[in-house]
Amino acid sequence: MNKTALITGASSGIGMATAILLAKEGYRLILAARREDRLQQLAKHLPTETMIIKLDVRDRAAVFGAIQNLPSEWKHIDVLINNAGLASGMSTIDKGDIDDWEIMIDTNIKGLLYITRAVLPAMVERGSGHIVNIGSIAAKEAYANGNVYCSTKAAVDMLNKTMRIDLLPHPIKVTAIHPGAVETEFSIVRFHGDEERAKKVYLGFESLVGTDVAEAILFVINRPPHVNINDIVIMPTAQAVAGVIHRK
Ligand code: NDP
Ligand code: 8X3
């Protein structure tokens, strides 16, 4: 049977691009996100078997319930792509909105942990599997007003390293992909729906698009069994580090 990948945050951006690319490569797909209508629309056009899960990764009981209740033909997950995530707000630490902080921590750290913990026992039992964690350049570098978002992604970076140690004996592969600026709905979400402000983030240079990151994901999950890619930082050519972008 073809391999099965579970992609969180498949309703938009990097997750959606990854679903499209992996479907073309023959992966069976479990697609998770809160916007179920988007997932249904996407699944209609994918040339592969798909299963949709309407899921808020912050909801611990829902995450464990969803994985436990997968039909038997979907229980064998070969690849988990921990992509669901967001930035919410962009302020100095003294002015930050605590609700924004909690949304980011609950989604980017706790949500990633819940789904990983729910999926892993079956991988451990089988002695195979691959976890791909989507971090960010914000995991590697601090930037102004990035405080809590950068911290959540630094946590993903450290979890990626630590879970790789824990899962070594089984052996389960663990990889992080850390992108720079990718034009998705990310900035619209970060600026709470302000599309004009979001557009400005990507003006005057060629940002990455979701497919660029999806191609990196496909590369890492298609390595032979003895090869694990620990970490990839993927940037627009016009971006050197977080916040340093050459705009025309
Ligand atoms: P998008 O906003 O386009 O996509 C984010 C996805 O995450 C959506 O499918 C959304 O689905 C899902 N999501 C958000 N919150 C939840 C939740 N509570 N439960 C389930 N799904 C959720 O942004 P990107 O594609 O850019 O972001 C994908 C990942 O890439 C994120 O982890 C982000 O931090 C990271 N990243 C993005 C970069 C960029 O510049 N765009 C750069 C580096 C990293 P729904 O709303 O339907 O639930
Ligand atoms: C998103 C990229 O640089 O806006 O993770 O934090 S950045």
Folded structure, characterized:
With 248 residues, the chain is of the alpha/beta class. It has a single domain, classed as Rossmann fold. It has 9 helices and 9 strands. Strands 3-2-1-4-5-6-7 form a 7-stranded parallel beta sheet, sandwiched between helices. Strands 8-9 form a two-stranded antiparallel sheet. β8 and β9 (244-245) form a beta hairpin. α1 crosses α9 and α3 (60-68) packs parallel to α4. The radius of gyration is 17 Å and the shape is globular. Bound molecules: NADPH dihydro-nicotinamide-adenine-dinucleotide phosphate (NDP) and 2-hydroxyethylsulfonic acid. 2-hydroxyethylsulfonic acid (8X3) is lined by residues 136-138, 146, 181, 242.
What's the arrangement of secondary structure elements?
Blueprint lengths: L3 E5 L4 H12 L3 E6 L2 H9 L5 E5 L5 H9 L10 E4 L15 H29 L3 E5 L2 H4 L6 H21 L5 E7 L6 H5 L4 H6 L9 H12 L9 E4 L4 E3 L2 E2 L3
Parallel strand pairs: 1-2, 1-4, 2-3, 4-5, 5-6, 6-7
Antiparallel strand pairs: 8-9
Helix pairs in contact: 1-9, 3-4, 4-6
The chain binds NADPH dihydro-nicotinamide-adenine-dinucleotide phosphate and 2-hydroxyethylsulfonic acid (8X3).
2-hydroxyethylsulfonic acid binds next to α5.
Strand order of the largest sheet: 3-2-1-4-5-6-7
Structural class: alpha/beta
What is the CATH topology classification name? Rossmann fold
Q: Please provide the ordered H/E string of secondary-structure elements.
A: EHEHEHEHEHHEHHHEEE
Number of separate domains:
1
Model regions low in confidence, pLDDT < 50 over at least 5 residues: none
Count of separate DSSP helical elements = 9
What is the terminal-to-terminal distance?
Answer: 49 Å
Please identify the top-level CATH class: Alpha Beta
Strand segment count? 9
The profile of the biggest β sheet is: 7 strands, parallel
The molecules bound to the chains, other than polymers, are: NADPH dihydro-nicotinamide-adenine-dinucleotide phosphate, 2-hydroxyethylsulfonic acid
The percentage of residues in β strands lies in 15-25%
Q: What is the 3D shape?
A: globular
Instruction: Evaluate the radius of gyration.
Output: 17 Å
CATH homologous superfamily grouping: NAD(P)-binding Rossmann-like Domain
Q: State the CATH architecture.
A: 3-Layer(aba) Sandwich
* Overall pLDDT score: 98
What helical percentage do the residues reach? Answer: 40-55%
